[in-house]
Amino acid sequence: MKIAIPVDEKDIKSNVCVSFGRTPYFLLYDTHTKESVFLDNSAVASTGGAGIKAAQVIVDNKVNALLTPRCGQNAADVLKTADIKIFKTTNASIKENIEDYISGNLPLLEEIHAGFHGHGGK
Amino acid sequence: MQDFMDTEVNSMKIAVLSGKGGTGKTLVSVNLAAVVNQSVYIDCDVEEPNGYLFFKPEGILEQQISVKIPTVDNKLCNGCRKCVDFCKFNALAYIKDKMIVFEEVCHSCGGCIILCPIKAVIEKEKVIGKIQKGTSDQVTVYTGMLNTGEASGIPIIKRLLTENKRESNKLTIIDCPPGSACVVMESIKDADYCILVAEPTLFGVHNLNMVYELVKLFDKPFGVVLNKCLEGENPSEKFCLEKNIKILSRIPFDSELGKMNSNAEIAVMKSLKYRAIFSSLIETVKKELQHETTFNS
Predict the structure, then answer these.
(1) What is the rounded radius of gyration, in angstroms, for the C-alpha atoms of chain A?
(2) pTM of structure
(3) What ipTM was predicted for this assembly?
(4) A90 within some domain
(5) Is A55 near chain B, with CB under 8 Å?
(6) Assigned domain for B153 exists
(7) CATH number of the domain residue A75 falls in
(8) Domain tally for chain A?
(9) Which of A16, A61, A71, B147 is the most buried (most CB within 10 A)?
């Protein structure tokens, strides 16, 4: 299984980023090989539609599950179309969330926000 | 010469703007349009137009406004993604061998349609709102209405202002959207004069400064109407004096005016006091404009 997590820094000891669409990096983690790859999020500087673009990157990297604290409607639509499951991270630790995901203790993200669409964080 | 200038001044376009909502743009716009002989009132605050509530225009003609957005023939599309990579608004995604168009993110630039090498992206019309035209006594009332959830009112504002060119012999009052964003820029683009409405608070000064910078950037002649004036210090007035900005009028903080306004009555129709205030305001603006015309010619 390949999972993706928005992260603040290119370091597995750093934190889960509070934003999906505008996270600086994604951690791609393979649960079988235990391999980690960090990706730059090209959507971070978008004037709009960052969630859509970030979701496209996740899809293109053939990820099976996304672990994120939150996710907007448009990004969720893209991920859903690609059959990617969205799980809700429960704390800031990347490692703990990966462990919780593997042991099946991470809940699915139920709350999809409508998006900020130019209004900044609300 | 005087006659010529009068005709010119009487057919000028005056935009009324402010840094935030609730400052008094519609109050000033509606009363200015109502106090002159022949005028056009255009409500460019398309997200929440309310001038028509005062004018109650009759003989309404309506026109739907649509924009062109892309639609994809997924049987033709070969997944080259030129369009996805091009779209700087990220309105397109390519998932499971299919294009997805996020219509409300699209800004109708048409780039994807031009770029598609196999013409799989074509355009379709999408209605985003409407404009209405009606009359209320001597005032022609235009109203732009953007549908809820649409990204931008600019196409509606553009149409409102083009429609009005047909009646360009009348004095036109443009009631702008609040703030200083692109919808406001579109609204004031062709204006001959800008009236900035300001509240007597520090927050009011901040908002005034936003539109002040905008009209300076657009190099428009402008002046300020101080609204909700109370006894004592007025930070917006202080700001005008410091920046050497012309104060066109002072409207008092008055419960009589508040009542008329909340009953959707036009103050200049109901009160001699306000008829005098707004007649004098329009005369002041005309003088400013004549001065501009003379100065520039």
Answers:
(1) 13
(2) 0.77
(3) 0.85
(4) yes
(5) yes
(6) no
(7) 3.30.420.130
(8) 1
(9) A71
